[in-house]
């Protein structure tokens, strides 16, 4: 009896997140807007970049459709000082990255994705870019203000390199399980959980 009870308990846990019964049912279940948790995209000795992903899946056929991916990024890093700056500069910035592509439900728990790298757009508000030193004085403020346009372009290039690799690696969502507004899935060997935003599509 104990063996039977343990098997039933295991089955209940396993079914907590259930897969769909066919590619078309998976396509219907995945349609809508999903958001993930913050994730570190780059962690170097001189700074860190974290991002929060959102996906908007729209069906255009029973088992396929288009997708819009967006990532809200926050960046914190240190820029080395030079002869005109007493202290190294600390950089804080925020950015939004979007890209478009297509998806196909290839099994009852798997979708394939194709992200078009030519659709990647990076938006940085220059007013939200903060440059400061630990001992900021009037001269340092002038230097930081002068550097800001160049820093914004540098940040865009840095983000472009990171997100292009990230988006092009998005080829499959495997082992998808959806229940109660949450979706578990794998990309490669990494496990992810996203939450549905708004009502499920009809």
Helix-strand layout with pairing:
Elements: H1 2-14, H2 23-30, E1 32-35, E2 39-44, E3 47-61, E4 64-79, E5 89-107, E6 110-124, E7 130-132, H3 138-168, E8 172-179, E9 182-187, E10 190-197
Antiparallel strand pairs: 1-3, 1-10, 2-3, 3-4, 4-5, 5-6, 5-7, 6-8, 8-9, 9-10
Would you give an account of this structure?
An eight-stranded antiparallel β-barrel has the order 1-3-4-5-6-8-9-10. The chain has one domain (about 1-195). The chain has three helices and ten strands. The model is unreliable at about 1-15 (pLDDT under 50). The chain has about 200 residues and is of the alpha+beta class.
Essential attributes:
alpha+beta; disordered N terminus; about 200 residues; eight-stranded antiparallel beta barrel
Low-confidence stretches: 1-17
Give the tally of structural domains: 1
The rough form would be described as elongated
- Count of individual helical segments: 3
Number of strands: 10
Give the termini separation.
Answer: 43 Å
Major sheet strand order: 1-3-4-5-6-8-9-10
Largest sheet: 8 strands, antiparallel, barrel
Short description:
The protein is α+β, with helices and mostly antiparallel strands and 202 residues long. The protein has 3 helices and 10 strands; from the N terminus they run H-H-E-E-E-E-E-E-E-H-E-E-E. It has one domain (2-197).
């Amino acid at each position: 009896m104990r063996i039977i009870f343990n098997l039933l308990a295991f089955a209940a846990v396993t079914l907590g997140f259930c897969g769909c019964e066919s590619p078309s049912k998976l396509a219907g279940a995945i349609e809508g807007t999903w958001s993930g948790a913050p994730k570190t995209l780059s962690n170097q000795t001189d700074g860190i970049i974290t991002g929060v992903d959102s996906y908007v899946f729209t069906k255009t056929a029973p088992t396929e459709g288009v997708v819009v991916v967006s990532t809200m990024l926050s960046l914190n890093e240190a820029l080395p000082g030079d002869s005109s700056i007493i202290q190294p500069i600390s950089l804080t910035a925020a950015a939004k990255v979007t890209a478009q592509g297509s998806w196909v439900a290839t099994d009852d728990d798997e979708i394939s994705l194709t992200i078009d790298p030519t659709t990647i757009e990076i938006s940085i508000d220059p007013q939200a870019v903060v440059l400061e030193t630990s001992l900021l004085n009037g001269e340092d403020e002038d230097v930081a203000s002068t550097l800001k346009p160049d820093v914004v372009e540098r940040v865009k290039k840095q983000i472009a390199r990171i997100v292009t690799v990230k988006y092009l690696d998005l080829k499959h969502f495997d082992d998808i399980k959806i229940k109660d507004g949450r979706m578990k899935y794998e990309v490669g060997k990494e496990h992810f959980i996203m939450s549905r935003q708004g009502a499920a599509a009809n």
